[in-house]
Specification:
Layout: H1 5-26, H2 31-52, E1 56-60, E2 67-70, E3 89-93, H3 96-120, H4 131-156, H5 172-181, H6 183-204, H7 209-221, H8 234-265, H9 270-285, H10 291-308, H11 312-331, H12 333-336
Antiparallel strand pairs: 1-2, 1-3
Helix pairs in contact: 1-2, 2-3, 3-4, 4-8, 5-11, 6-10, 8-9, 8-10, 8-11, 9-10, 10-11
C-alpha cells in the first residue's frame, strides 16, 4: 500500500487545485473549506463537490419548442442555430457523472467508511460475515442511495419529484396495475435469459461447465445472505423485508430510471438510452452469470418508465419481483435455483 502513497497524494493535490480554480470561477460558497476537504480527504469530499457544482440548463428552442441541453450549437430537433441570446433556462439538468458520484458515495465510500469505524469500535466483524454486519452494510448503502439521490434532486437541482415521475395523479392506480400485470412476463423473461446464458456458456466452454454451474449457484445464494435462516426470526425477517422489498426497489428506481435514464434520454435516442441504462444497472449489481438477466430486466423497467412517464409502474414491478424471489427462496427453493 505504501508504494501507492505518492500517487494518492498527487491525486489529492491535483483535485484540490482543480476545486480551487473551478470553485473560484463559479463563485461557489465556502470555497476554501471545499479545497481543504478535498486536499485532506479527497475520496469523500470530491464526489460531494462534483454534486454541488453548477449544472447544465434545459431551454426551449424558440423555433420548434423542443427542449435542449445547453451548451449546444444547434437544436437537436430542427437544427436551428443556438446562440446565447436564444437560451432562456427553464430548469437545471444533471448528467451521468452526477449519478456515478452518488453511486460511489452510496455503495462504496459511505458503507465501507462506516464499516471501518464500526469495526474499530468492535460493533461489526472485519469480514462482515455475521447477519448483523451484512444487514448493516447493505442498509447503509441503500438508505444512502435514497437520501443522497433525493437531496441531490431537490436541494441541488431544485427539481420536484414530479419531474422524475413520482406523483399521485389520476393514473396512480393504473400504473400500479401495470407493474403488477408485468410480473409474470418479467419472471419468465428472467428465467429464459438465465437459461440461455448458462447453455451458451457451456456450449462455448464445455470444459468449464462445472465452474459455470458453481458460479451460478454462488450468485443465487447472494440474496440469501441478508435473509434469516428461519422466518420465525421475526425481527431479522421484517428488517430484511423492509430493506429488500421496499427500500431497495424505491432507491434503485429513483437512481437508475429517475436519474440515470433521464440523463441519457435528454441527449440520446430511446434505444441507446434503454441499452446504456440497462448496462449500468446490471454492472452495478456486480454479477457475471446473471448480468444478461439483470440487463434485460433493467431495460424492461426503463421501457415501462418511458411509456408511462411515471416511476410508480417500475417501482411496483421491482417490489413485486423482489417479493416473488423472496417467496421462492423460502418456499420453492428448487424453483428459485
Amino acid at each position: 500500500m505504501s508504494e501507492f502513497l505518492p500517487f494518492l497524494l498527487i491525486m489529492q493535490l491535483v483535485s484540490a487545485v482543480f476545486v480551487y480554480f473551478e470553485s473560484k470561477r463559479f463563485k461557489i460558497p465556502n470555497r476554501i473549506l471545499w479545497v481543504i476537504g478535498v486536499a485532506l480527504f479527497m475520496p469523500f469530499f470530491f464526489p460531494f463537490y462534483m454534486l454541488i457544482r453548477p449544472k447544465r440548463v434545459i431551454f426551449v428552442c424558440q423555433n420548434c419548442s423542443e427542449e435542449n441541453v445547453y451548451p449546444i450549437e444547434r437544436c437537436r430537433n430542427c437544427n436551428d442555430e443556438i446562440t446565447p441570446d436564444k437560451v432562456v433556462p427553464i430548469r437545471t439538468q444533471w448528467g451521468l457523472m452526477d449519478a456515478f458520484m452518488i453511486l460511489i458515495l452510496s455503495f462504496f465510500l459511505l458503507p465501507m467508511g462506516l464499516a471501518g469505524v464500526a469495526n474499530r469500535l468492535g460493533i461489526v466483524d472485519k469480514e462482515l460475515s455475521s447477519w448483523g454486519s451484512i444487514f448493516a452494510f447493505n442498509f447503509i448503502g441503500t438508505t444512502s442511495l435514497l437520501i443522497i439521490s433525493l437531496w441531490f434532486l431537490i436541494k441541488i437541482c431544485k427539481r420536484s419529484l414530479v419531474d422524475i415521475g413520482l406523483s399521485r395523479d389520476n393514473k396512480l392506480y393504473r400504473n400500479i396495475l401495470i407493474g403488477i400485470a408485468l410480473v409474470i412476463p418479467a419472471l419468465f423473461l428472467s428465467y429464459a435469459v438465465e437459461e440461455a446464458t448458462i447453455k451458451s456458456l457451456v456450449i462455448i466452454a464445455p470444459s468449464q461447465a462445472e465452474k459455470i454451474y458453481e458460479m451460478q449457484a454462488k450468485e443465487h445464494s447472494i440474496p440469501g445472505e441478508i435473509w434469516p435462516d428461519d422466518t420465525r426470526e421475526v425481527g431479522k425477517f421484517l428488517s430484511a423485508g423492509l430493506l429488500m422489498i421496499i427500500l431497495a426497489p424505491i432507491a434503485e428506481e429513483i437512481m437508475f430510471r429517475g436519474i440515470i435514464y433521464n440523463a441519457l434520454r435528454i441527449k440520446r435516442s430511446l434505444l441507446t438510452s434503454l441499452i446504456l441504462s440497462g448496462f449500468i444497472f446490471a454492472f452495478v449489481h456486480g454479477q457475471a452469470i446473471h448480468f444478461g438477466e439483470i440487463f434485460v430486466i433493467g431495460v424492461l423497467l426503463a421501457y415501462i418508465y418511458e411509456r408511462t412517464k411515471s416511476l410508480i409502474a417500475p417501482i411496483t414491478l421491482h417490489i413485486v419481483l423482489n417479493l416473488a424471489f423472496l417467496i421462492a427462496w423460502y418456499y420453492f427453493p428448487s424453483l428459485y435455483t
